[in-house]
């Protein structure tokens, strides 16, 4: 339809020509769709977006440009840390397997490291040493500390008195508060060995023997070695 005719008709008959006016298509009135990428508000937002991409994307799937931006020293450090982490993970796996097997064998046992009471029963003396799990000595006494001198330190009675005195000292110094497990380590076969056992099983050791979790014999065994001294003949 001619535009001049429509204009003249609209002026003559405004009511009729109102419905005949040309209208612009709806798609022309709307704003055309923008295909340009969204511009970030600031450099901080851009940095955060890059960090999210790095954290969300695995190292194998990161673009080559990001890998190229990493320096050679950084890649070397990452490689070393990867090898160390692999070694540590293997060690922890072995430890976990060992601990799991122990728990399966004895599920109700305590896993805290024990304290040690070393009983050195020499034929001429008896020495008792209490140590922490790492080997630090807490108390060390012998028959000489009780007033026995020279040949009097040997025998059953001095060892008996020494054992009773050591058990009393353990209680008086408050060591029972920190000792949860105790391992007794015997060495040699002097007269003090039987005396210590009697005291531990007697009334003096009633507060100590409940803590004993293991008894070990650490006596030295000679295979060959130097020639022994001749047997004394009277």
TrEMBL record:
<dbReference type="GO" id="GO:0003735">
    <property type="term" value="F:structural constituent of ribosome"/>
</dbReference>
<dbReference type="GO" id="GO:1990904">
    <property type="term" value="C:ribonucleoprotein complex"/>
</dbReference>
<keyword id="KW-0687">Ribonucleoprotein</keyword>
<keyword id="KW-0496">Mitochondrion</keyword>
<protein>
    <recommendedName>
        <fullName>Small ribosomal subunit protein uS11m</fullName>
    </recommendedName>
</protein>
<dbReference type="GO" id="GO:0006412">
    <property type="term" value="P:translation"/>
</dbReference>
<comment type="function">
    <text>Component of the mitochondrial ribosome (mitoribosome), a dedicated translation machinery responsible for the synthesis of mitochondrial genome-encoded proteins, including at least some of the essential transmembrane subunits of the mitochondrial respiratory chain. The mitoribosomes are attached to the mitochondrial inner membrane and translation products are cotranslationally integrated into the membrane.</text>
</comment>
<dbReference type="InterPro" id="IPR036967">
    <property type="entry name" value="Ribosomal_uS11_sf"/>
</dbReference>
<dbReference type="InterPro" id="IPR001971">
    <property type="entry name" value="Ribosomal_uS11"/>
</dbReference>
<dbReference type="Pfam" id="PF00411">
    <property type="entry name" value="Ribosomal_S11"/>
</dbReference>
<dbReference type="GO" id="GO:0005840">
    <property type="term" value="C:ribosome"/>
</dbReference>
<keyword id="KW-0689">Ribosomal protein</keyword>
<comment type="similarity">
    <text>Belongs to the universal ribosomal protein uS11 family.</text>
</comment>
<dbReference type="GO" id="GO:0005739">
    <property type="term" value="C:mitochondrion"/>
</dbReference>
